Predict the structure of General stress protein 17M-like domain-containing protein.
Amino acid sequence: MTAPFTGRPGTQPGLPNLPEPPSGWPVGSYAKYEEAQRAVDHLADNEFPVADVTIVGVDLMLVERVIGRLTWGRVIATGAASGAWLGLFVGLVLSLLSPAGGIGGLGAILTGLVIGIVFGIVSGAITYGASRGRRDFTSQSQIVAGRYDVLCQPRNAEKARDMLGKLAMGTDG
């Protein structure tokens, strides 16, 4: 016979770590993550039990910032550079494992480097060529929130709200 479920999801061995919504009462809302982080840091600096606090990003969105144009030259250079690092690493490992040492070790490093560069160029060219010009730019993606709410467990929410209110008015430390 199995025991009834007792506790939160993911807290017992063998159970998956399921997502669960945050709990607590709102004690502050901020436009930027840094502001919410500053608020929680203020609470921590004033001996508040911050284990009761959660920062929640609300209205999540994926932001993709375009960095630059992608050309064949850039693809080949980037592929060569990343392949060189991989090849150098493999060559160094092989040189350490080489019984000959000395010149044999240097040969393993150079061979790994050359093969890595070739592999990097070929794999980069194949990937870029397969896109057929549909994505001729590089970018960075990140998930950001429209606002950041600070929640606190009910037992300390009023105290947190008072402390953050004083911080906002500039009357507390």
Confidence is low (pLDDT under 50) at residues 1-7. Strands lie at 25-30, 53-69, 137-152. Helices lie at 33-45, 72-97, 102-131, 154-169.
